[in-house]
Design a protein that fits this description.
Layout (H helix, E strand, L loop, with lengths): L11 H12 L24 E4 L2 E6 L2 E5 L3 H4 L19 H8 L3 H14 L2 H28 L6 E2 L5 E2 L7 H17 L4
Antiparallel strand pairs: 1-2, 2-3, 4-5
Helix pairs in contact: 5-6
Length: about 190
């Protein structure tokens, strides 16, 4: 009988831990922590906030930082063409999907039908004008982003913060934007 006796002394912390486990409170603390804790902000799905000079959001329950390249994260090409349901495995399929939303074969069939109807010249003008409109939109977004950029500082790859002086001449940049848009509009086919 004396062999079955537990010879270990339990600390108060061990007893508290066992009580918590029995009560189903496995995550409860058994001791007091000492030290500094930073005030934590709680955010919900879709919130956008800035911390440490970076923008953050919560998507699908995961904290993610927001970058200028977020649009490219979603620019994936599907495995199957949404039009014909065929496998998109040809070399040019990703390019055609990004431009037209379908695979190369679907675009060839569509363009052949347009040629047979006799609307090919009109179609070429429409496609060209759409490309010019998209270029104008992207150029305007780029110039606005550059004009609104902060000039307060720059962090190098070594982690050093550099303070820059000067800035963007907004009047000159707006004039260049207007001239660029006028030139691009002049390229449109009537």
């Amino acid at each position: 009988m004396s062999d079955n006796v537990l010879k270990k002394d339990f600390n108060k912390k061990d007893v508290e831990r066992l009580r918590n486990l029995v009560k189903g409170k496995a995550g409860e603390r058994t001791s007091q922590g000492i030290g500094y804790t930073k005030k934590e902000e709680f955010h919900k799905e879709g919130d956008v906030w800035e911390s440490d000079g970076r923008k953050w959001t919560i998507k699908d329950g995961i904290k993610q930082n927001i970058t200028k390249l977020d649009k490219f994260k979603t620019a994936a090409v599907p495995l199957f063409c949404p039009t014909c349901k065929g496998i998109m495995n040809k070399q040019l399929d990703p390019h055609y999907f990004k431009a037209h939303g379908a695979c190369l074969d679907c675009i060839k069939i569509k363009e052949t039908k347009i040629k047979n109807v006799g609307q090919w010249d009109k179609h070429k003008k429409e496609v060209s004008n759409k490309e010019i409109d998209k270029t104008i939109e992207e150029y305007t977004q780029f110039m606005n982003m550059k004009m609104n950029e902060s000039n307060d500082g720059f962090v190098t790859e070594a982690g050093e913060v550099e303070k820059w002086k000067g800035g963007v001449n907004k009047e000159r940049a707006e004039e260049a934007l207007r001239e660029g848009i006028e030139y691009l509009k002049s390229l449109k086919k009537e």
